[in-house]
């Protein structure tokens, strides 16, 4: 911060000094002629008195008379035999016309002695400048200028620069920690309005990265855990295949191994699809869709997957809504399949529009889900009923897909107690303008 402060302070003081000099120079230029006339008028009476006193004396005695006159004035008085060369044409013309001429730079007044070629020289009029020396005078003015302007300016620059620097250091340290792998690092609240948006953006990015990394780590661990069972069954099948004593036994073991290979293939495919959706690599395509027609088609498509002992009912509001038909199909299908696994006799689906939201509710009359386990249901590879095997329980990613799809639509998913006694899964999607032609 010291280097930045010194640079800004030096630049500010330099610009201020240049502007001050320019302003003073402008004032001098504008007031030079008026100042000369004012001084000349003020000194006119004094000049006439000196001229009268000198002209009363004979020429040889004028030097002695001038010496006596010097004692009466605070500034020097001299008599030259001819006009000095520094007068210039304008000064000589004024002296020739009987007028006085003031050299503003030297603060010296010139006047012709009437009837003679002599020139009366009065000054420098500002004897303080002559006695103190111009170097000391300018240095003193510079010190005063620095004290009255430089010190307050330095304090102002420091007080304004300090919060910016502190926020910048905090952002730098946070980004360094994030780069080193500490995804829990967060930048403190910024005091500077300049870096406040950057602080919020950095923290938001860090939160998303942390959440994605946790999801991917959990997914990787879960996939590794899920792979153990089919791999173990394959290893067992290979061993039993070598020890089989008949073609029927070998055929049975081969079929089991083929099912295990199919399960591995399905697990890998569904895991890749989940990861791709989690990374946001699935583009959103919003369509305007007739609710009644679309959800009736959905119910028709899932009917073959419904147990014969269950009743499936649909209560859909008339109207249209906008959503990604492919993703919402996966989400609603997974909700219905999940309800089929737990319902005793009935599954009921409700679809309606409320306050700019598309609301979908799936109710079953099963045993329900304990409140403390409801959030865990949406984690990848979670199956609350551990007694179910892969044939009925799936891979435990169905509800995780529902949560991801809701997130990508800007909506949410939740679980609560169903009026039918089981679980109610709710999916709410905000309405967006369509991007494709339905």
Task: Please tag this protein with its features.
11 helices, 438 residues, alpha+beta, 57% helix, Heat Shock Protein 90, 4-stranded antiparallel beta sheet, 5-stranded mixed beta sheet, 11 strands, Alpha-Beta Plaits
The SSE string, one letter per element, is HHEHEEEHHHHEHEEHEEHHEE
Note the total helix count: 11
CATH level-4 homologous superfamily of the domain at 287-430:
Histidine kinase-like ATPase, C-terminal domain
Largest sheet: 5 strands, mixed
Percent of residues in helices comes to: 55-70%
Radius of gyration: 49 Å
Walkthrough of the structure:
The protein has eleven helices and eleven strands. The protein is α+β, with helices and mostly antiparallel strands. Among the domains are: 129 residues, Alpha-Beta Plaits (2-Layer Sandwich), CATH 3.30.70; 144 residues, Histidine kinase-like ATPase, C-terminal domain (Heat Shock Protein 90, 2-Layer Sandwich). Helix 1 crosses helix 2, helix 1 runs antiparallel to helix 5 and helix 9 runs antiparallel to helix 11. It is rod-shaped.
């Amino acid at each position: 911060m010291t280097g930045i402060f010194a640079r800004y302070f030096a630049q500010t003081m330099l610009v201020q000094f240049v502007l001050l000099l320019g302003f003073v120079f402008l004032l001098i230029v504008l007031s030079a002629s008026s100042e000369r006339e004012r001084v000349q008028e003020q000194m006119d009476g004094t000049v006439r008195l000196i001229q009268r006193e000198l002209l009363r004396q004979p020429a040889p005695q004028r030097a002695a008379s001038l010496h006596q006159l010097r004692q009466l004035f605070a500034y020097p008085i001299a008599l030259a035999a001819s006009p000095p060369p520094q007068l210039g044409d304008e000064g000589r013309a004024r002296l020739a016309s009987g007028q006085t001429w003031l050299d503003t730079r030297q603060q010296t007044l010139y006047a012709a002695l009437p009837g003679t070629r002599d020139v009366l020289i009065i000054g420098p009029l500002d004897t303080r400048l002559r006695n103190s020396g111009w170097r000391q005078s300018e240095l003193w003015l510079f010190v005063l200028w620095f004290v009255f302007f430089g010190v307050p300016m330095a304090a102002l620059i420091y007080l304004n620069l300090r919060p910016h620097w502190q926020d910048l250091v905090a952002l730098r340290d946070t980004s360094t920690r994030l780069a080193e792998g500490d995804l829990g690092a967060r930048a403190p609240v910024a005091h500077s309005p300049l870096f406040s948006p950057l602080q919020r953006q950095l923290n938001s990015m860090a939160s998303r990265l942390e959440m994605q990394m946790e999801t991917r780590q959990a997914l990787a661990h879960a996939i590794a855990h899920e792979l153990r069972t089919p791999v173990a069954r394959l290893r067992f099948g290979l061993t039993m295949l070598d020890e089989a004593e008949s073609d029927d036994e070998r055929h049975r073991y081969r079929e089991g191994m083929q099912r295990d290979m199919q399960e591995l293939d399905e697990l890998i495919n569904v895991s890749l699809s989940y990861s791709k959706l989690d990374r946001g690599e699935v583009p959103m395509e919003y369509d305007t869709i007739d609710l009644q027609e679309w959800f009736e088609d959905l119910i028709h498509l899932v009917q073959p997957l419904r147990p014969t002992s269950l009743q499936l009912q649909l209560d859909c509001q008339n109207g249209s809504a906008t959503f990604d038909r492919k993703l919402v199909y996966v989400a609603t299908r997974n909700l219905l399949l999940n309800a089929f696994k737990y319902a005793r006799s009935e599954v009921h689906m409700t679809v309606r529009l409320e306050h700019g939201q598309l609301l979908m509710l799936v109710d079953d009359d099963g045993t329900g889900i304990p409140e403390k386990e409801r959030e865990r249901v949406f984690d990848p590879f979670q199956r609350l009923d551990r007694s179910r095997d892969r044939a009925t329980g799936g891979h435990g990613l169905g509800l995780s897909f529902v949560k991801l799809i809701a997130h990508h639509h800007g909506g949410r998913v939740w679980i609560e107690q169903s009026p039918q006694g089981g679980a109610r899964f709710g999916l709410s999607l905000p309405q967006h303008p369509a991007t494709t032609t339905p």
